[in-house]
Amino acid sequence: MTTFSELGLSPPLLEALADVGYEAPSPIQAQAIPPLLEGRDMIGQAQTGSGKTAAFGLPMLQYVDPEESEVQGLVLTPTRELCIQVTQALRAYGRRKGVDVVAVFGGAPIRGQQAQLRAGGHVVVGTVGRVLDLISRHSLVLNACRFVVLDEADEMLDLGFLEDVERILALTPSSRQTALFSATMPAEIRRLADQYLYDPALVRVKAATLTVDTVEQFALEVQAREKTDALIEVLDAERPDQALVFVRTKIRCDQLYRTLRDRRLNVRALHGDMTQGARDGVMISFKEGRTPLLVATDVAARGLDVTGISHVVNYDVPTSPDVYVHRIGRTARVGRSGRAITLYEPRQRREIEAIERHAGVTLAPWVKDARVAPTPVHPKPRRHSKPHAAPDGEVALRKLVIGGGRADGLEPSDVVQALTAAAGLDGEAVRNVRVLERFSFAEVPALDAERVVQQASGARVRGVALRLELARG
Q1: Which of 82, 83, 167, 179 is the most exposed place for a label (fewest CB within 10 A)?
Q2: Digit-coded pLDDT (tens) for 279-322
Q3: Which pLDDT score, from 0 to 100, does residue 404 have?
Q4: Do 359 and 333 have their domain in common?
Q5: Per DSSP, what are the bridge partners of residue 201?
C-alpha cells in the first residue's frame, strides 16, 4: 500500500496528515499528488467524498511560501458550503507549515473578508461571484498566484459560472499551474480544459469508485398518516451513527424537525430559509458529530460532505433518479459502507419503479435487521438528443434561450418560477437552468417547448420582460 511519505510530501504536511488521522492516500490522492508535485497541470475526474481536496491541496501547500505575503494559490468552488469545507481542510493540512487560508464567499459581509485579505492570505478559497467582486474592488490581487484549482467544475457549469471562471483565469499569470476537478466531463468543461490547461495529466479514479457501490438500499411502503411513526421505527431499529433525512420542501423540513425534537430526538434542520449563520452552525455541529440526526432539503445539503454518515433516509421520495443517486451518495464515503432507506406511499410505487429502472438499482423491502448485498448505483448519463422520445422512455428535452440574466438580477429559481407560472409546467419539468450575465438557458420537454416560448414570452420577473426563443440545433 502506498503511503503519503512515498508520494514526496514534506515533513510538515506529513505531520499535519497524522494530526488529522490520515493513514494512507485514497486512489485519487495516490494518482494526483505525484504529477501535481512535478508541476504539471491536471484534469481529475472524481466525485465529492473521494478525497480530492487533499489531492490538489497538499501539492499546492507544499510549494506555498509562508514568508511571502501575496496570494499564491486560488481554489474556485461553485457553492458557499463547498468553499467552507475546502477551507477547513486546507487549514488543517497547512497548519504545521504556517499557511494562511482565507475563505471568501457571498452571503457574508465583504468588509470582513477584505480585512482578512489585507492581513495576509497565502491561499484563497472562494465562490466565483465573490472572487470577482473582490478583484473589482482591488482587494484580491492575483499577480503572484501560481496555483489555480477549479473544484467541481461541472457544477460551476450547471450554475452558469463558466464565463466568470474564464474572466478570473485571464487575470492570473499565464505561467500558473492549473488543476481542474469534475465528476463528469461535458463538452464545455473539456473546452475549458483545452483552452486553459497545458499538456495536463489525466487522472480518473476507477469506475467503481465513481459510483456508490457500498450502499445497502431499501424501500418501505407506508401510509401518509403513518410516515413519521415509520421513520422513528426505522431510526430506532437501525441505530445510525449519523443519519441524513431528506425532505422535499423547507416547510416540511421544519415540520419534521419539530416533530422529531418533540419526540426527544437529538436533531437539527437545514434548509434555505435559515440565516446563513444558523446554517453554518448546523453544518459544523453535524460535521463534528455532535448532531447525530439532520433533516435537510436537497438544495441545503448540496456540498455537505461528512464521512461519518451511516444512513440516508428519504422521508420524501426523490423527485428524480438523479436526485436519488445524489442523496444516497451522502453515505458510504471513501470506502465506507452505508444504508439508504426510502419511505413511499402506495400511490408512489411507480416513482420507486422509475428510480429502480433509470438509476439501475434494486430496492429491497425494509424490515428490522434486514441485510442485502450493497447495490451499485450507476446513474445514466444525461441525454442531449434531438427532440423525440428516447429509446428508454426518457422525456426528450429542448433548450430555450431567455433574454435576461444576472445583470437583471435573475436567479435560476426566477426562471423556473416564470416558466411554470406562465406556461403551466410542473417545476420538475424545467431542467438544466443556467443564468449568465445577459441571458439564460433552460430545458423543457420538447413537446411543450413551442408552447412555453409563446406563453412565457413577455412574462415579467423582477421588473424584466423575458424574451424566449428556441435554441438553434
Answers
A1: 167
A2: 888 888 888 888 999 999 876 666 666 777 889 999 998 876 76
A3: 82
A4: yes
A5: 42
- The answer to whether residues 342 and 203 belong to one domain is no
Nearby residues of 15 by Cβ (< 8 Å), 6 or more positions away? 96
Average pLDDT of the chain is 83
| Helix residue ranges, H only, 210-334 | 227-238, 250-262, 276-287, 298-301, 321-328
- pLDDT score recorded for residue 433: 78
Burial bucket for residue 70 (CB in 10 Å: 0-12, 13-18, 19+): middle
State mean pLDDT over 431-439. Answer: 76
Instruction: Take residue 299 and report the three cell numbers written for it.
Output: 438544495
CB 468 within 8 A of CB 433: no
**Residue 383 lies inside a defined structural domain of this protein:** no
For Cα atoms 164, 298, 462, give the angle at the middle one, nearest 5 degrees: 55
| pLDDT (0 to 100) of residue 100 | 95
19 and 92 belong to one structural domain: yes
CB crowding 240-268: b at 16 or more within 10 Å, else e? bebbbbbbbebeebbebbeebeeeebebb
Cell of 237: 431499529
428 band by pLDDT with thresholds 50, 70 and 90: low
Q: Is there a single domain that holds both residue 330 and residue 357? A: yes
0.70 exceeded by the pTM? no
23-27, 169-173, 369-373: lowest mean pLDDT where? 369-373
Place of cell 422512455: 393
Q: Are 24 and 81 in a shared domain? A: yes
Total domains in the fold of the chain: 3
The residue with greater pLDDT, 459 or 344, is 344
444-456 burial, b at 16+ Cβ within 10 Å, e below that, comes to: bbbebbeebbebb
Which residues contact residue 104 at a Cβ distance below 8 angstroms, ignoring those fewer than 6 apart?
A: 83, 113, 116, 117, 124, 125, 126, 127, 130, 131, 134, 140
**Element containing residue 313 per DSSP (H, E):** strand 311-314
- Answer positive or negative: Cα dihedral of 22, 34, 305, 379: negative
Q: Residue 301 is part of which domain span?
A: 211-365
Ranges of H-type helices in 329-443: 349-359, 412-423
Spatial separation of the C-alpha atoms in residues 258 and 290, rounded to whole Å: 18
The dihedral built from the CA positions of residue 434, 435, 441 and 443, taken in this order, carries a sign that is: positive
Contact 105, 127 (CB under 8 A): yes
Same domain? 77 vs 131: yes
Give the CATH number for residue 412: 3.30.70.330
